[in-house]
Here is the input.
Amino acid sequence: KADSEAKDEL
Amino acid sequence: MNIFRFAGDMTHLISILVLLLKIYATKSCSGISLKTQELYALVFLTRYLDLFTGFISIYNTVMKLIFIASSLAIVWCMRVHPIVRRSYDKDLDTFRHYFLVAASFILALLLYEKFAFKEIFWAFSIYLEAIAILPQLVLLQRSGNVDNLTGHYVFFLGAYRALYILNWIYRYFTDIHFSRWIACVSGLVQTALYADFFYYYYISWRNNAKLKLPA
Here is the structure.
């Protein structure tokens, strides 16, 4: 779920 | 950060530089859809809401600032710049892009990762980016002959999203937490919209002829 928080893509 | 995503971001940046070059070098925006440029500015403004609240990396912040600044600068050029605005094909660029904004917003209210302000606007920006190119593609079909820089601009714009699809495939196999279905499906739709353009772009490159889209 960590990924959905930090929108690391532009 | 993987090579596909970095290449995608660089290709996206190149597309914007090519567009700025065309406008600056020819002092003309003929063949460019102002509506698509306005939609892109809206995409960046609604997607990068966390620009000042969150920090991911210098690269991430710098690229976000570049995308926001360049998209607003292009809209400004086409609306306000006394010389450039005269070459805007107002009577050809008639796509009702408000429907695209409304459809994307409604879809974002139905389909999102989490029902939160930033998440809804993020999903909205993803859906809107997928269809934002439509006014531009319609304008290309209507305006018949397409100048080289405009053709290259649209090509790089399509290539950037195609590279992002490779990035998602790569992350799917390497990053166990990776679950960005909204971005993936929307990105596939977005890239598919370029399919016929890519075909005619390839034909014009192979025959070394002017790019021409059938009306």
User: Anything to note?
Assistant: Chain B has a mean pLDDT of 95. Residues 130 and 160 of chain B are 12 Å apart (CA to CA). Residues 148-174 of chain B form the longest helix (27 residues). Chain B has one domain: 3-207.
